[in-house]
Each structure stands twice: as C-alpha cells, then as structure tokens.
C-alpha cells in the first residue's frame, strides 16, 4: 500500500514542479498516471520510489510514514520498489555488461551468490538471449537495453513497480513484450504497479485504474 | 538572328567535408611520435644510465673545471670539473621522480576530495570546496615555499610541497564530473537497487572520472618538474650537492655571467625538452578524449 498525501516537490526552492498532489496505490493494484509532458509525473514517480525528497506532504508505505529518502532510507524500503526509467540509455551504467547490470542490485545487497540463478530465471522472462547478456549497453538496441533494465528492476522481487514512461521510446512489439513481462510478474507475486505515461490507450488497457494528472491536485 | 550560346554546364556541386586535412594530421602524428620517442629516451636514460654506467657523478676534477663541450665531456664540465652530461642525467632522474611522485600524490588527494565533495553534496560539499578556495587564494609558489621551509631540505619535502599545492584543480575537475554524473538515472537506479553511498562512489562514479583524473595527473608531471626546479633554484628545494635540474642551473648562474654558457644551457634543455614531450603526449591523449578541446600546456 502506497499513499501519497498533498505532495509538493521540485528541484529549486519556491518553484515546485508538483503541487499538492495525492495518490493511492492499493496492494496488488495497478494505477496508470496520465499527464502531458513536463507536468511533473516523473518527479512524482521519483518521490514515490524514495528517490526524491518532497518539499512537503506525507508518503505512507504500508501505513507507516516515510521520513528518509535516497541513501538515508533503509535499504529494505528502497528495494521494495522496482523502478524502470524512460531512457534506458541513461539509466544503464555504460561500463557494465548486461549481466552485471541486472545483477548489480543483488551484489549491492550482499546476495551475489544468487546471481547465476536469478539471471537464468529472468533472461527468458524479459526476452534476453545469452549472447546479449555479455554485451555492453552501447552494443545493444534501446529495446534490448530496456529489457535488461526491467530485469534489473525485477531482480530483487519488489512489492511495488514504478514504470516511468517505460515504453515511450520503444516500438509496439517491444512495448507489448515488456508490458506482458510486468503483468506476468504481477500475476505471480501480487506486486502493485504505478505506471506513468502519456499514452491513454496503453495505460487504459494495461492498468486497473487510470488517473489523469489534473484530477490529482 | 542571334543565338544565345548555351550556358556552360554548372560544375557539379560537391560536398566539402570539413576535415583537418592530411597536412595537419601528419603534423599531429609527427608531434605525437616525436614526443613518444623523447619520453621513451628520457625514461630509459634515467632508469638505465645510473646502474649501467659505473661513473661517479660527484667525481671532482679541479684541473678540468669549466671545460667547454668536447669529445670527452659532451656537455662540458662544471665549476669543480664534474661531467655535466652525467650530472644532467642524474638531475633529470631526481626531477622526474619528484614530478611523478608529486603528480600522483596530488591526483590521489584531489580525486578523493573532489569525489567526496561531489558524492556527498550538501554541507560536506560546501565545506570541502571552501577549503579548496582557501588553498587556491594563496599563490602556489608562496604556499610551496612555506611548506618546504618546515622541513629539512630533501626530495620528499619538495614532493609534499608540490603535491599539497596542486591537488586543487584535480579536486575541482573531479567534483564537477561527479556532480554531473550523480543526477543521471543510472545512479538513481543504483540507489533504488539498495547500493550504499560507498558502493555508488566506487562502482559507478570513480571509474567514470578515472580517465579525467589520469589525464590531469600526466599533465601535472611537467608542471611539478618546473615547480621542483623553481624551488631548488631559489635554494629551498633539494640540497646543493644533490643533482637536480634546478640545483644545476642555480649553481651555474655565476659562470653564465663569465661567458660559460654550457652549465646552464644543458640542464635547461633537459628541463624543457622532456616537459614539452610529456605535455605533447598528454595533449594528444586529451584531444582524443575531448576532440573539441585544444590541449594547452600548463606550466
């Protein structure tokens, strides 16, 4: 259960991008957040994923208020979220081969021993072949890289997925494959989803409930 | 009836590709090769000559003092008859050691401070950068002299003095680079994946700034060699009996006024040529990393 109450957030003082926004994602629910470009949906998604401290407002995770963001947030809270960003190119460390990219959260949380098993499980789920796994980000396409980023978001088995315009840069078939992978994961684990985007058709077909940005504040 | 002559066919428009052209490319290749050859010769000379040539650089021969260059002494002799070629090689050895050691120390300190400031942000960043500003506000040479004056003359005080006055630019470069990297989504992804601050710094930030830091280190070697020479020339660096390029030039000043040019010219050349060669190589490297920046020699 994720509850955002009267969140105001931004990057410079006195100029908030998000003003007084409230949103609730129930356990197992998938919520689509629709809005025009530049309205602040990504900022709200970052606040929800504990990556950006809001200027004011309350964030409740399973009924408990969140007081710390980014590194200050306890590790198990941070890793409760799986985040997929819009631009795969920028959200992948250019030096790491895709295997290491996907395994990074496991290694960072001291579970390096699970790496071979989890990679073997996840690669077919997101549609990555073994030869792709050895390549570095500049050697694969945006779609293939986004598949690896989705695998990285799923590797720690998060309770809540935040997909920030996950399919915006991709062709229709890759977008469909990634949405299917997310839905399979949710069906298996009961994870909740906050999908941010501007494609009304996609979000309405994908999510249980679609909310428009203007209706939030 | 007049008939207009048909207009001459327009010359087909060809695309002019902007390129540096073969002439400039070959000049650049020549510069890089010459620099590489000179750096290699310098390194080989300082590494091989002292162990292989069993000659005493301190051997005094008062009967042969201030001899001009000859077959026996290609660079001539100094005011107590010591062979200048041998003294220059030994001097270059000390100067290069000081240059490399100071540049490495300065880069390690600068990278650590810059990375800490950039990665931690907030009050730690502000405090560290004010320290950098404070150090920068004092002239390098003045601060260097102050540090050297606290120790007995020797190689390591000079290394410390040059290193402690030259980590500032590296710290600024590394901090700026880390700040720009820190806001990338892949750092957000690492934070969300449970990475600690230390892991983000070591796994994602430092490897990305390492090429910049290494380049800054190489560009700093010639600069550090000049500082060592300046300190020794002022009589504050190495003790006079230790051959370094600065002490050689300093002791030879008097004979220059008497018309003996060789005791100052050759140590001067030994200082200028390797520094230009190292700077030439580092410049080529820098142009490769940042093709839009022209390299400049920092002395």
From TrEMBL, chain A:
<dbReference type="Pfam" id="PF00005">
    <property type="entry name" value="ABC_tran"/>
</dbReference>
<protein>
    <submittedName>
        <fullName>ABC transporter ATP-binding protein</fullName>
    </submittedName>
</protein>
<dbReference type="InterPro" id="IPR003593">
    <property type="entry name" value="AAA+_ATPase"/>
</dbReference>
<dbReference type="InterPro" id="IPR003439">
    <property type="entry name" value="ABC_transporter-like_ATP-bd"/>
</dbReference>
<keyword id="KW-0813">Transport</keyword>
<dbReference type="GO" id="GO:0005524">
    <property type="term" value="F:ATP binding"/>
</dbReference>
<keyword id="KW-0547">Nucleotide-binding</keyword>
<keyword id="KW-0067">ATP-binding</keyword>
<feature type="domain" description="ABC transporter">
    <location>
        <begin position="2"/>
        <end position="216"/>
    </location>
</feature>
<dbReference type="InterPro" id="IPR050319">
    <property type="entry name" value="ABC_transp_ATP-bind"/>
</dbReference>
<dbReference type="InterPro" id="IPR027417">
    <property type="entry name" value="P-loop_NTPase"/>
</dbReference>
UniProtKB/TrEMBL annotation, chain B:
<feature type="transmembrane region" description="Helical">
    <location>
        <begin position="265"/>
        <end position="285"/>
    </location>
</feature>
<keyword id="KW-1003">Cell membrane</keyword>
<dbReference type="InterPro" id="IPR000515">
    <property type="entry name" value="MetI-like"/>
</dbReference>
<dbReference type="InterPro" id="IPR035906">
    <property type="entry name" value="MetI-like_sf"/>
</dbReference>
<feature type="transmembrane region" description="Helical">
    <location>
        <begin position="205"/>
        <end position="226"/>
    </location>
</feature>
<feature type="domain" description="ABC transmembrane type-1">
    <location>
        <begin position="92"/>
        <end position="282"/>
    </location>
</feature>
<feature type="transmembrane region" description="Helical">
    <location>
        <begin position="127"/>
        <end position="149"/>
    </location>
</feature>
<keyword id="KW-0812">Transmembrane</keyword>
<dbReference type="InterPro" id="IPR050366">
    <property type="entry name" value="BP-dependent_transpt_permease"/>
</dbReference>
<protein>
    <submittedName>
        <fullName>ABC transporter permease</fullName>
    </submittedName>
</protein>
<keyword id="KW-1133">Transmembrane helix</keyword>
<comment type="similarity">
    <text>Belongs to the binding-protein-dependent transport system permease family.</text>
</comment>
<dbReference type="Pfam" id="PF00528">
    <property type="entry name" value="BPD_transp_1"/>
</dbReference>
<feature type="transmembrane region" description="Helical">
    <location>
        <begin position="94"/>
        <end position="120"/>
    </location>
</feature>
<keyword id="KW-0472">Membrane</keyword>
<keyword id="KW-0813">Transport</keyword>
């Amino acid at each position: 259960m994720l509850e955002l109450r009267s969140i105001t957030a931004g990057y410079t003082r006195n100029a908030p991008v998000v003003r007084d926004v409230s949103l609730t994602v129930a356990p197992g629910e998938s919520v689509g957040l629709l809005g025009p470009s530049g309205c602040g949906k990504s900022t709200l998604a970052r606040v929800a994923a504990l990556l950006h401290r809001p200027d004011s407002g309350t964030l409740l995770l399973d009924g408990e208020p969140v007081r710390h963001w980014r590194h200050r947030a306890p590790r198990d809270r941070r890793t409760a979220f799986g985040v997929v960003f819009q631009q795969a190119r920028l959200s992948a460390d250019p030096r790491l081969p895709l295997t290491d990219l996907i395994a990074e959260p496991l290694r960072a949380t001291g579970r390096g021993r699970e790496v071979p098993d989890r990679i073997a499980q996840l690669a077919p789920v997101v549609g990555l072949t073994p030869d792709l796994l050895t390549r570095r980000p500049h050697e694969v396409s945006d779609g293939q890289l986004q598949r690896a980023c989705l695998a990285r978001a799923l590797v720690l088995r998060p309770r809540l997925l935040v997909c920030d315009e996950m399919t915006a840069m991709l062709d229709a078939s890759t977008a469909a494959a990634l949405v299917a992978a997310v839905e399979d994961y949710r069906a298996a684990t009961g994870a909740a989803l906050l999908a941010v985007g501007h494609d009304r058709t996609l979000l309405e077909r994908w999510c249980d409930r679609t909310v428009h940005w203007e209706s939030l504040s | 009836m007049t008939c207009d002559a048909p207009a001459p066919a327009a010359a087909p428009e060809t695309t002019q590709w902007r390129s540096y052209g073969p002439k400039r490319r070959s000049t650049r290749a020549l510069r890089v090769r010459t620099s590489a050859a000179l750096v290699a010769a310098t390194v080989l000379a300082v590494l091989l000559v002292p162990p292989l040539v069993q000659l005493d650089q301190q051997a005094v021969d008062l009967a042969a003092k201030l001899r001009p260059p000859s077959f026996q002494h290609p660079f001539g002799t100094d005011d107590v008859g010591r062979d200048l070629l041998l003294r220059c090689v030994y001097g270059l050895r000390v100067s290069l050691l000081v240059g490399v050691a100071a540049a490495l120390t300065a880069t390690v300190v600068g990278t650590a401070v810059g990375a800490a400031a950039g990665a931690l942000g907030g009050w730690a960043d502000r405090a560290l950068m004010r320290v950098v500003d404070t150090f920068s506000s004092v002239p390098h040479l003045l601060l260097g002299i102050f540090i050297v004056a606290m120790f007995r003359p020797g190689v390591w005080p000079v290394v410390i003095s040059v290193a402690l006055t030259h980590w500032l630019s590296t710290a600024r470069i590394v901090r700026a680079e880390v700040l720009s990297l820190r806001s990338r989504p892949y750092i957000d992804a690492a934070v969300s994946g449970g990475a600690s601050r230390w892991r983000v710094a070591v796994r994602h930030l430092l490897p990305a700034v390492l090429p910049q830091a290494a380049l800054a280190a190489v560009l700093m070697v010639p600069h550090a060699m000049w500082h060592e020479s300046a300190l020794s020339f002022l009589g504050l660096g190495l003790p006079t009996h230790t051959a370094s390029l600065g002490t050689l030039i300093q002791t030879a000043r008097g004979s220059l006024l008497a018309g003996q040019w060789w005791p100052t010219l050759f140590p001067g050349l030994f200082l200028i040529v390797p520094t230009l060669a190292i700077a030439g190589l580092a410049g080529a490297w820098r142009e490769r990393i940042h093709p839009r920046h022209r390299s400049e020699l920092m002395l």
